[in-house]
């Protein structure tokens, strides 16, 4: 037997096995790895990577020795056994993001994850140089999650053809052979996922979407499942993957609610790591009605992925579903004609703050008209807006919370404004387009200090002295202010 | 018989009759005037004005001769007959405001009334000098309607005692003799109504409200009716009166829905001129639910008087009630701690414009903290905010509409923004916190010209050339812009 491979926790162990190149391994070969540490067993499906190479990936989540053995309907890939040693995580690697404390997120090692997402739906379908530019932009941005589609996008400002596709082209050159995945496509795609991981950015992988001229939104049930299991087999071992079953699922008319339920169950069954799972809606926008949401109360949904402009409702959705609320789409900063793409930066930043004090997490997107037809929300490239630096400022404030997360605290001031915080310890109140000249705080027992935060100018001014009980403090009578109160 | 009195149309004819000073004329005397022109008869109740003087007021609405005769349970006031000649209206006098074209308002002579209201709830309960200052401020303002209470107000920033009250003080000095109205109070109050009339400002007279330490919100049914009929007898002849049955009626716990219905019927029965009638709600604020509105669909309600911050709903309420929608309270510009009183001026102006393109009419109020405790919304005084001049600019734009009013036109541009206008003639689109860089218009047959309006900077920039059919125009990618398109 070989010397056990050494792999750091939450990195990827990969077993490459040689096998037949003939036939249709995508359809006909089932390879499963059984990874065991003590009594604990994780099963991961393998995948055919082209050229006669079959791969099995595994992300160990606990240091120590893991043993594995394969099972396969091809004898030459069956019963391959071995071991690997999982070393402690590399510095900066915290594992996959999980739900924490009902409404929040943390990495597997317990490190808090304050989700600050952005959106570049089709960035991996662009020319290589543009993808590299997007990565550089992301590295300089505050964003720690990005929504990105597997399939290319056919939509306004999203018309260009990608270099390759998730499925092989049909032999006759017309359309696709949906029985064969395209390893070259996925090799490129997963390289981007890995690069995001090294930047500390979660890849919120959108598995289906309705902006489709190729047929990927109208595949058969069998193809859908093969596709999903292939994606899981390739990507689940990447610690920074989140599963987004769809963007605007309710526009995908070829799928029924039973299909979505089934897709969630496929993710539940085949993802050994139970990465975060959700699904993003279209029609609730502009109403106070959640009937067009997919029911986030279903047990396989880990968190709410919401499209809605009324971000003040985040706190209500938390109570309704008892899960984290991520408002992945609240419209985008930009100047498109379209209402979903022309928020002023002030309004974009306001929506981030309102979501935050509602106990939710907001997502960004940017849609400035571009002479080269490169819009961040579609293709990536460079960020042109004024909101990202303010969102970075908000992220800094969140990360400065001494411990834990912040939840709605009702009305800590007499301003009728909602506050988020931790009772007796920390309160963050946001005033938005309100401009109170004063506020009376009603604080539980304790001694506190306060900071006035200008969320637009991005400065923090400590207030003189300490606070206790009921105290009235002066505020500057201008919009976009916040107040941070912390116990001493 | 005397020479007939001469009175201009929509001015007040007043008959003063001497009668007994003894007893309780408020309770025991019923004086009615029957005014007849041709086959048309209007009946108006008279009132006791103290000092043995009984008055009967009449506002003629048609030039020519009117004959009258009184009836009274006191023989000396019964059967007094006479005539008056109604002359054409004085310049600038257009008569009472009526509902026009289902969703709008016009004066009796057909002149359009674009309702641009403000709010000084207790201004007539303030010292004389302050009332005079309020009138001067109103004269320089864009406002053509003011919400004002008959009763004094006991509320935050509204604690001072007025000089007098609608009822006489009780003989023992404790509380009030609710069987006796106070003519001196009403003489002062109606003088203010008349002064507003001369300024072209409608007095939206609030008959009941819940902010009460005196007992005016908890009177008996008999007293309520006597009070209402006395107010009608004195004030209905003022052309600029609107009846607002209550402010925040649903806080007045001593009244039932049947009481409000009855009060509306009293107004219907005794107001010969059928001035506009509505009632203002509290609880719907912050919901999309109209169940806490008084049902504006009831036949005696002439228009919807709404408190709500989601002014974008105006168009829906129009459709629901098929009446004009006046959002009398959408929060106020100011810097109070209270959320209802600390809108930024930008947000106040935005709400006016959003209401306008929803086919409704918005109301203003101002609540800046004041060292002298004089806040416009409560007591009047001077206007300190930045919204009134922008509201004046909006009023100018409305008055420049060549004819008629503007109604929701759906989406005339590709921006998902609502427009108000007249099909094929006039379109006003407002972008609010949106900042599109372009818009594609889809115009019905015809040739049009367009103006770009900066609603905050208050300038109007004509676009070069003419438009027809589907045309894309450049917009400046900044918030608070509007687009006006008019047929040539």
Structure description:
- The structure is a homodimer of 488-residue chains.
- By secondary structure, the first copy, chain A, is an alpha/beta fold.
- Chain A has three domains: 5-87, Sandwich (Immunoglobulin-like), CATH 2.60.40.10; 97-399, Glycosidases (TIM Barrel), CATH 3.20.20; 409-487, Immunoglobulin-like (Sandwich).
- Helices cover 20% and strands 29% of the residues of chain A.
- Chain A has nine helices and 30 strands.
- Chain A has helices at residues 25-28, 128-139, 183-198, 221-235, 257-270, 314-321, 345-357, 376-379, 387-399, and strands at residues 5-8, 13-18, 31-37, 40-45, 47-48, 53-58, 64-72, 81-87, 97-100, 104-107, 117-119, 145-149, 167-169, 176-181, 202-208, 241-246, 277-278, 304-307, 325-329, 333-334, 361-362, 366-367, 407-408, 419-422, 426-430, 438-442, 448-454, 459-462, 470-474, 481-487.
- In chain A, the strands form nine sheets. Chain A has a six-stranded antiparallel beta sheet with strand order 23-24-25-30-27-28. In chain A, strands 1-8-7-3-4 form a five-stranded mixed beta sheet.
- The mean pLDDT of chain A is 95.
Would you summarize the structure shown here?
Chain A is of the alpha/beta class and 488 residues long. Chain A has helices at 25-28, 128-139, 183-198, 221-235, 257-270, 314-321, 345-357, 376-379, 387-399, and strands at 5-8, 13-18, 31-37, 40-45, 47-48, 53-58, 64-72, 81-87, 97-100, 104-107, 117-119, 145-149, 167-169, 176-181, 202-208, 241-246, 277-278, 304-307, 325-329, 333-334, 361-362, 366-367, 407-408, 419-422, 426-430, 438-442, 448-454, 459-462, 470-474, 481-487.
């Amino acid at each position: 037997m070989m010397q056990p491979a050494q792999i750091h926790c939450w990195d990827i162990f990969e077993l490459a096995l040689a096998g037949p190149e003939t036939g249709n391994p995508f359809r006909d070969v089932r390879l499963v790895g059984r990874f065991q540490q003590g009594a604990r067993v994780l099963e991961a499906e393998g995948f055919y990577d082209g050229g006669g190479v079959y791969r099995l990936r595994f992300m160990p989540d606990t240091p120590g020795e893991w043993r594995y053995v394969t099972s396969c309907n091809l004898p030459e890939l069956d019963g391959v056994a071995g071991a690997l040693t999982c070393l402690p995580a590399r510095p900066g690697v915290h594992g996959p993001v999980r739900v924490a404390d009902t409404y929040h997120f943390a990495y597997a090692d317990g490190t808090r994850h304050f989700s600050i997402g952005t959106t570049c739906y089709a960035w991996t379908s662009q020319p290589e140089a543009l993808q590299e530019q997007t990565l550089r932009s992301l590295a300089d941005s505050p964003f720690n999650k990005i929504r990105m589609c597997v399939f290319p996008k056919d939509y306004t400002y999203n018309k260009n053809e990608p270099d390759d596709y998730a499925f092989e082209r049909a032999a006759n050159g017309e359309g696709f052979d949906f029985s064969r995945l395209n390893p070259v496509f996925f090799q490129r795609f997963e390289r981007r996922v890995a690069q995001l991981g090294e930047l500390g950015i979660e890849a919120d992988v959108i598995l289906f979407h309705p902006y489709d001229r190729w047929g990927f939104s109208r595949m058969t049930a069998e193809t859908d499942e093969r596709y999903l299991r292939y994606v899981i087999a390739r990507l689940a071992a990447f610690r920074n993957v989140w599963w987004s079953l769809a963007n605007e699922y309710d526009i995908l008319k070829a799928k029924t609610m039973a299909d979505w339920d089934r897709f969630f169950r496929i993710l539940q069954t085949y993802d050994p790591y139970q990465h975060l799972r959700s699904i993003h809606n279209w029609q609730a926008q502009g109403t106070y009605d959640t009937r067009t949401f997919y029911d986030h109360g279903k047990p396989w949904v880990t968190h709410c992925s919401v499209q809605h402009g009324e971000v003040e409702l985040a706190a209500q959705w938390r109570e309704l579903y008892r899960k984290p609320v991520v408002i992945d789409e609240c419209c985008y900063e930009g100047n498109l004609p379209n209402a979903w793409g022309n928020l002023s930066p002030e309004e974009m930043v306001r929506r981030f703050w309102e979501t935050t004090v509602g106990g939710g997490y907001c997502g960004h997107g940017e849609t400035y008209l571009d002479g080269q037809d490169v819009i961040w929300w579609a293709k990536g490239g460079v960020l042109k807006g004024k909101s990202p630096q303010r969102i970075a400022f908000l992220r800094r404030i969140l990360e400065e919370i001494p411990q834990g997360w912040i939840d709605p605290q009702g009305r800590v001031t007499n301003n009728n404004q909602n506050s988020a915080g931790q009772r007796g310890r920390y309160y963050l109140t946001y005033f938005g387009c309100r401009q109170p000249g004063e506020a009376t705080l009603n604080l539980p027992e304790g001694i506190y200090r306060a900071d006035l935060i200008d969320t637009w100018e991005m400065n923090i001014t400590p207030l003189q002295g300490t606070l206790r009980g009921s105290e009235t403090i002066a505020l500057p009578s201008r919009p976009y202010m916040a107040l941070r109160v912390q116990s001493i």
